[in-house]
Specification:
With 239 residues, the protein is of the alpha+beta class. The chain is built from 8 helices and 4 strands; from the N terminus they run αββααββααααα. Helix content is 43%, strand content 13%. A hairpin with a 4-residue loop joins β1 and β2. The protein is globular and about 60 Å long. It starts with a helix and ends in a 19-residue tail after the last helix.
């Protein structure tokens, strides 16, 4: 099991631009990533925890001087802020022995990468998304995100119940997670606006925030978005 985790603990993103340039970034799902240097240059001010710190952040600057999420975004911001967010790009994601490719905009490709970076960054408000990161789905739609969020959270509650721990079947905890995620996305956008010369990284986070808002709305005001896929569950004739 440990060997399988190590094998599946790396997500590799490649951004292939029309001018022939290629930018690559690895996302580690285990603590091994913390041993890797984030950058070879002096850390910019916007990575400081107190720089536009999220209002609901529980971390203290004297204990954690750098924002974990900001540190996870350092290389993408360094490499991609010089490009336009609507620039066409081929994104290739190597993950679990598969190659997932999509011709898309830099904004959407970056949004997919930022999602998994946030989940694995160590931010207290994104840590509950780590389980979803192990089953990362690049370029996921709103319905796919809702399905994965619900499935991951409910499975987590089932596993808690198996351990004799209190379980939340009302999904209130998941609603709280997504409300916190929206605040984190907005806070990170404020940070990146201070760093970005172009808008690609900021817009990537805006895209993420739209998905978070969409998922939160579906949780609060569910209108049967996923019912079509579960028709057989509603048929009691065979019970």
């Amino acid at each position: 099991m440990v060997a399988e985790l190590k094998r599946d603990a790396l997500i590799h993103y490649e951004f292939r631009f029309a001018d022939g340039r290629c930018w690559q970034h690895d996302v580690f799902l285990t603590a091994l990533a913390e041993e890797e240097p984030a950058t070879t240059i002096a850390l910019p001010d916007w990575t400081g925890l107190s720089f536009h710190q999220c209002d609901h952040c529980p971390l203290k600057a004297h204990e954690v001087p750098r924002c974990p999420f900001a540190m996870a975004l350092l290389r993408p911001v360094e490499m991609l802020t010089q490009r336009n967010s609507y620039e066409g790009v081929e994104v290739v994601v190597h993950w679990r022995g598969r190659d997932i490719r999509q011709h898309t905009t830099l904004q959407r490709g970056l949004g997919s990468l930022l999602g998994v970076l946030g989940a694995t960054s160590g931010c207290p408000h994104t840590r509950m998304m780590k389980a979803m990161a192990w089953f990362h789905l690049p370029f996921s739609t709103s319905d796919e995100t809702l399905y994965r969020a619900l499935g991951t959270y409910l499975l987590g509650q089932f596993l808690r119940a198996k351990r004799g721990q209190a379980s939340d079947w009302s999904l209130q905890g998941l609603r709280d997670i997504y409300r916190n995620l929206r605040q984190v996305n907005l806070g990170m956008s404020r940070r990146l606006r201070a760093a970005a010369e172009e808008d690609s990284s900021v817009n990537g986070l805006i895209l993420l925030d739209l998905l978070a808002a969409d998922t939160l709305y579906a949780l609060d005001q569910y209108e049967g978005e996923l019912d079509l896929f579960f028709q057989d569950y509603f048929d009691d004739s065979g019970c």
